[in-house]
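Let's inspect one such protein example.
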Amino acid sequence: FLVQDSTKVKKILQPMLPSGVQIDTVTPRDQRSVVSGSAATNTDVSNFMRKIDSSKVFTKLELESIAQVGGRVQYVLSAELHCPTDAGAANNACKPSAAKPQSVYKCVVNGSTVFQSKPCKE
C-alpha cells in the first residue's frame, strides 16, 4: 500500500475542525492516521469526530483517549484513510510527496573523477 503523507492528511482535516479544536500531530500507523490535539470541550471533539465520520476520506473512526488537562480537553483519535485506487488522484493523502531533487557534484579526488552528493572539497 502507499505511505500516508501526514501533512496532506492534516490539510484534509483542517476544514473539518470546529471552532475551539486544534490538531497537534497527525501520525501514520499502518493504514490509519492517528490524530492528537486539544479542544475547548468534549462536545467540540464529538462534533469534530462526526465531521470526520461523515467524510468519504476516512473510515473506521475510533476515539483512543480523551482527558481534561488544565482548561483543555486532550484527545487522540484514529481513522483508516480511504486511499483512492487512482494513486495519481488530486489531493491523494496516501501518495507520498514528490521527493526533493538531489544535487550531484562532479569532483576530482586523488586524480580520479567521482560523482557525489556533497560539494567537492577544495
Remarks:
- The radius of gyration is 21 Å.
- The beta strands are 21-29, 32-39, 58-69, 72-81, 105-109, 112-116.
- The mean pLDDT is 81.
